[in-house]
Design goal:
Number of helices: 4
CATH class of one domain: Alpha Beta
Pfam families: GrpE (PF01025)
Protein name: Protein GrpE
Strand order of the largest sheet: 1-4-5
Shape: rod-shaped
GO molecular function: adenyl-nucleotide exchange factor activity; protein homodimerization activity; protein-folding chaperone binding; unfolded protein binding
Radius of gyration: 65 Å
Low-confidence stretches: 1-7, 25-45
GO biological process, one term: protein folding
Subcellular location: Cytoplasm
Length: 229
């Protein structure tokens, strides 16, 4: 009887163990993800994966940021280069305008100086033309003084005034045109008569009837002359 009782108890214990094992298997098969034991190694691997993912994401963001900064820098330099090109073009236009204005001003200055010179010479010629008859009268008056009176105070005074007048005219650029003994030149001489002469050849001026004058390089009055025929 005792053995029979022990056998029954052993059977009961085996049955309970089988049921407990079956329950554990059901739990493991049905809810493995929920009731599975998490080991430290699993936690370490999971943390490393998350850190690697975060590092990769941060690296990608850094690369994108650097690329954006690089593109922004290129855009800035492109705008700067374009602005410099526009400024250079404006500077070139202003320099060209300044050169043109300087050239125009230089031409204006030269033209003005030439006009002033011409006006001055025209005015001077007009005054000289009015003075020349006075010079002619001085010469005629001195030529009519008798030989015995040329040493008088009056004659010497007239001669001194005449010389002073001619000196002032010479300092202004007024000079008499050479005539007697020179070849006739229509640019300086005006032939009013022809004469016979044994002293001069044909075409040479033998007499000067009215003295001619030049102001610098311009003829103020032609010489009135007689040319040998």
């Amino acid at each position: 009887m005792a053995e029979q009782k022990d056998i029954n108890n052993q059977d009961i214990q085996d049955t309970l163990n089988k049921e407990e094992t079956l329950d554990k298997k059901i739990i493991i098969d049905g809810g493995e993800s929920e009731d599975k034991e998490i080991l430290p190694e699993d936690i370490s691997l999971e943390g490393q994966g998350e850190m690697q993912a975060e590092e990769a994401e941060g690296t990608l963001e850094d690369e994108e940021g650097e690329e954006c900064e690089e593109n922004a820098g290129k855009g800035f330099f492109k705008k700067k280069d374009k602005k410099q090109e526009v400024l250079k073009q404006k500077v070139d236009e202003l320099e060209d305008r300044v050169r043109r204005q300087m050239a125009e001003f230089d031409n204006f200055r030269k033209r003005t100086d030439k006009e002033k010179t011409m006006m001055f010479e025209t005015g001077a010629r007009s005054i000289i033309e009015k003075i020349l008859p006075v010079v002619d009268n001085f010469e005629r008056g001195l030529a009519t003084i008798p030989e015995e009176e040329k040493g008088s105070a009056f004659a010497e005074g007239m001669q001194m005034i005449y010389k002073q007048l001619m000196t002032e005219l010479d300092s202004l650029g007024v000079k008499p045109i050479e005539a007697i003994g020179q070849e006739f030149n229509p640019e300086y001489h005006n032939a009013v008569m022809q004469v016979e002469s044994e002293e001069y050849e044909t075409g040479i001026i033998a007499q000067e009837l009215l003295k001619g004058y030049m102001y610098r390089d311009t003829v103020v009055r032609h010489s009135m002359v007689a040319v040998v025929n």
